[in-house]
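Contributing new records

If you add data, match the layout below exactly. Sequence lines come first and carry their own label; structure lines follow with theirs. Keep one chain per record. Anything else will be rejected by the validation script.
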Amino acid sequence: MRDPYRGFCFAAAGAALALFISSNAIAEEGASDGNRYFLERYYTADISSAKAFLDAVVKRGKWSDRADPLVIVDVRDATEYRTGHPEGALHSPYPRIYRQCENNNRSEDGGSCTDGVIDGSTVSQDPEDFFLEVEGRIPDKATRVALLCRTGFRSVLAGNILANPEEFLGPDYAGRGYENVFNIWEGYVGQPKEGVVRSGGTLYVAGNDQTLVDLTLPDGTTAKGFDAFDLDLNNNEAIDSGDKDGWIYFQGLPFDTRMLPKLISPSAVSYYNMQ
């Protein structure tokens, strides 16, 4: 299924960006620059899959006196995590723990229900329960935490909660946020990469005819944008998984399928083997 934000691409500097920033899709308190979905950002910064792999996997155990570790928190659901995850990634799902697909049909990465989701099968994670689960497993709030989801959307939502729980959970959580929260920009699977074209000295995301069109965002707001032209990176005359820019595809980073007791989520234990 095509992501609802995929067609929402902007000129490097132009009216389309201004129109989006003025919409009510962005909270006044949160900055909107950074993540690929233009969501509000209370967390520290966005980082690449490669940076997360270097700091959390390659360096882990290499230098015993290393005082600034990075912990990857995988917020995908139970089925997605079981299908594959970065080595050593802590599983704490948000905003859903599990969902069942129609006919049990999923994409090859395990994340997308190709025939749709069975009504009533989605098990949601309460944001407060999510925060408390992570807090119980990572008590040091100075720890560098990198959030990972499928394409970089859910990880932003989770990162904002960890960085600023007072904003999302209420005043009782004031002062309990994590100091160094990062979003892994591409996600585990990622999205197809768009080409760019130059016109009059300005770079634009490549669309069919470079005409701005009206787009409706998932929250019902409207904006101007281009229908992006996706690149066939693997040259197989199709836009498929191999063209996506995430951890396991274009990035080509190693992954693990072991379900280590110290890493799996307590809230997801009963769902790991259901599909």
